[in-house]
Amino acid sequence: MEQKVKKKNRKRVTKKIAAEMLEVLTIMYPDAKCELNHSNAFELLIATILSAQCTDKRVNEITENLFQKYKAPSDYLHVSEEQIAQDIYGLGLYKNKSKAIKKTAAILEEVHGGQVPGKREDLEQLPGVGRKTANVVLSNAFGVPAIAVDTHVFRVANRLGLAASEDVLETEKQLMTIIPKEQWSQAHHQIIFHGRRICLARNPKCSECQLQHVCREFV
User: What is the mean pLDDT of residues 9-34?
Assistant: First the structure.
């Protein structure tokens, strides 16, 4: 994940401007949603673990077959880590991810009755699950308001001035104070969409951006 943004105009926008930005993002991306294919909380958890340092598109290509083969935590316990690694080969850190998935499946079976827990503290006890992954699962599987700060959210939020921090956790906290709680989950997806389509890491399409008039990086 990018850990720093330019220090040019490193001031946060006001809540009024933030609200204007969110209105524009809603118009630009009315159907923004999680782009990891899944049909239940367990599939989302596995897909999010796999998404570390990988694109959602590539993860979806892998999980299309993976989710046909493994439908519950117990299914992963009947095969070796090597087999899981082979099934997810092609993803970055696939060996580490296979170990995390195997251990996570065991904990889900032994501690949570084969179900994905709906509490942050329980999710963050699972191997391969940090705050970002927990936020993704809580928001998309359980409807809990949350803002998962991935590389896109971190970059875009700091460029726009919704946040002004070189720290991921502090960026999340700042977003939580400037975005109304009821909008956290949807705004998270809209910011990601903007980061993938317009506000690219390299060569952002500023000329196409409908937020350039209020963007702290552009002005």
Answer: 92
Q: Are 205 and 198 in contact (CB under 8 A)?
A: yes
> pTM for this structure?
0.90
Active-site residue list: 132, 150
- Residue 148 CB neighbours (<10 A): 24
> Residue 122 class from Cβ within 10 Å (0-12 exposed, 13-18 middle, 19+ buried)?
middle
Give the type of residue at 147.
I
Q: What is the pLDDT of residues 99-110, one digit of tens each?
A: 999 999 999 999
* pLDDT computed for residue 218 by the predictor: 73
Q: What is the DSSP letter of 89?
A: B
Q: 24, 191 in Cβ contact below 8 A?
A: no
CA distance 26 to 37: 22
How far is 203 from 196, CA to CA, in rounded Å?
12
pLDDT at 9 over 60: no
Taking alpha carbons only, the member of 93, 125, 121, 101 closest to residue 43 is 101
